[in-house]
Amino acid sequence: MNTIIATVIGALASTAVLVGGVNAAQGEHKPVSNEKLYSYSDQ
Amino acid sequence: MTERRRDLALDLACAAAVTVLVLGPLLAGRGFWLVGDMVFVPQQPWKAAWLGLDGALPRAVPMDALISLATQVVPGDFVQKALLVGGFLAGGLGVARLVAHQASFARAAAITLFCWNPWVYERLLIGQWAILLGYFLLPWVALAAVRLRRGGPGDWAPAAAALVLSAICSPSSGVMAAGVLLVLGLGRDRRGWWRATAIAVVANLTWAIPALTADAARVTTDGVFAAFAARAESGAGVVASVLSLGGIWKTSILPGERTSALLVLLACLLSLAALAGLWRMGADRSRWLLIAGLSLALALAPAIPGGADLLESVGARLPGLALLRDSHRYLAPFGLALAVGIAYAVTAVRARIRSGTQALWSAVALLVVAPLLLLPSLAWGAAGELERSSYPQAWTDVAALIDADETTVVLPWAGSYRGFDWSHRRAVLDPAPRLLPGLVLVDDTVRLEGRDVPAEDPRVGAVAEALEQDDPAAALRDLGVRWVLVEQGMGEVTAPMGKSVYDASGLELIDLSDPGPAAERSRAAWPEMTTTREILVAIGHLLAFLLLLVGVAVILQPGSNGRHTT
User: Fold this and answer.
1) How far apart are alpha carbons B250 and B257 in whole angstroms?
2) Can you give the pLDDT at residue A40?
């Protein structure tokens, strides 16, 4: 039972760490262009 | 050390760790986080408008008044740090106290989920710090509600204090706090109903009376519900986004991980675990599930087919419904319910640990740290997204040239958000109205994709018309405008003719009174406060302030059990 639990929890945790880490690392600061500056645009 | 003190120390350590991990870069030195609606200035001059006494629609009444008073004593960047740190700590400790009878790891899970989730990230990145503070007060509102329902001497005092503080944060915070108080605080005693209702009403007078008496302002609900409706952040859809506490309309601020359907679905699993925990909590289960359900329904209402149209048609007859625009913010009570629920979920998992299932400890640990794993971008100033900025000396120099009874128009006249080089060209609400003395007018037209929502302040409309005249300087002078402040570096600006009295570091101040004196204001364009309105607004503030004072006094009274809310 312990093996099954550890496998499931390990899989969930490693998926979150891997996918979350990769996506977070891809984030970058995007300075706002003059055209978009005054807009409530969702872009 | 007693068990109670040890628990408090553990909760404080957990909340402090989360706080430092989120706010670390802000705390590492002097300077401001300036982003979106989050505008703090070194010293905010006092104005009647901060109390809603200028006849315009109140924006941050009375929070701006308190900030103004605080910055007379403490530099604005310290005020910002104190408010954000205090908010995170108060939220963490409050939610831990709500589940005080649970084990330390269950309380830690409640703290991490409550203080570290997509709603907190998105509200921080959009700059709505006051709404964030209102969110962090919700656990204290819930504690006060439970106290009120149990009855006893001074039972109303915590509710009074928590409700007034929430209403000070923002109107929507006051409304959410009232909702949580009514759902959790009402029992079979009809007297309790009246008391809870009276507290909710009086606490919210501080913003409600200025809003109701500002009849010169135009509130538009046309198209705003659809424009500000919750959005799908990933392929998992809008319901999954909202269920995992995300889904803000402004998708440009989303962290990378929220655009991953897999991570959003994993976050939904965490929410479902929390809801399952709520189901197991016993006595107040139905009340907490009602809070979660109402909050979720409000947040999703404009996003469901026909929802925005329905709200818009009702809003056309009932302008106050504009309070529900950007309904995603009403997910705040859902966040609180999930935080309470996750503590019960962790306790339930712990109860299943026995010989042969010790590996379930890893599940307990995972539930505690899952919010951090699912949203690593919240760490360290949104993963470096939020950088400290300092105002150039030019802002202080310009403020020193303007008197408190003068009017300034800020250009470019193209919306109220700016991207200064000294602030990393991050879009931020123009700081001029808060930094300069006197009446400062900025174009507050809400510019949406494909359409503009007109400014709510009639003075803005009058200035817009004046700027389109052949001689805008004369037209502005006729409106009583003495100064034009041109903020440079954000596109071409055609400034009215006048004497340039200051030009440095991207700011030019033009004096329109040269050669002649500024004219008297056009009474037709400017909202004016009648004595009756001034008295009404003053009474509203006075009643709310008295309620807060008396409530705090009762809580602090020796022998009072107002503090023992669990």
Assistant:
1) 15
2) 46
